[in-house]
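Need MARVEL domain-containing protein's 3D structure for a figure. Predict it.
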Amino acid sequence: MAGKCCCGTGCNLRVFLVVVLMLTASAIIAVSVFTILYVPAIKMTETPVWAGGPLLLAALFSTAYCCPGSKSTQSTQSHGERRKHGQEETGDEEGDEESLCVFIVKVMCIVFLAISFIVCLIAAVFCAVHIVQIFTFASCRSVADGCVCFRSKDADTKRTVYSPVENCDEVFCKVTYTIMASGSLCLAGSLAAIALMASVFRSRYGHIDGDA
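Structure prediction for MARVEL domain-containing protein:
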């Protein structure tokens, strides 16, 4: 039927979340590349290119599961319709192969979404911790090709060195804003990943006997 939803109940939400994942993963990778090239003072823990990769893979597997006209979505729909009307499974080899493909795609989708949620959440936490650290420095001092910030006024306290930067103002501007952008994108990616994972899981296993 023309205009029929591609992946059953909740399709619009899933498609929206897949688009969000794609855009967020691309943005994370873009910001990470910008950070590596133009803000080298930021450590790799706050350069979450390692979070954008799994998120992009999760988006690709989600697209394979939810894309219009795909065998996986058609098989999922027909399986749900047969269960709803109480019809018996045919058990033919082609149907078994399609069911296996649907199962594999869905499992890979859920696995990568779970990995993306954890990795992006960790990246967001790293960025948040660093932002708190920047705003709680007691003092900062410009040095040759860098900036040294101290946790307290004691000279023997733990210090953080940012290099290369032109001066300490760059730490509170470019470095801070870049880390904020990375952390915000990672947080958005983790929320979208867990929401899509719940929706995809529920589409097959939720309300199995709801009409009984």
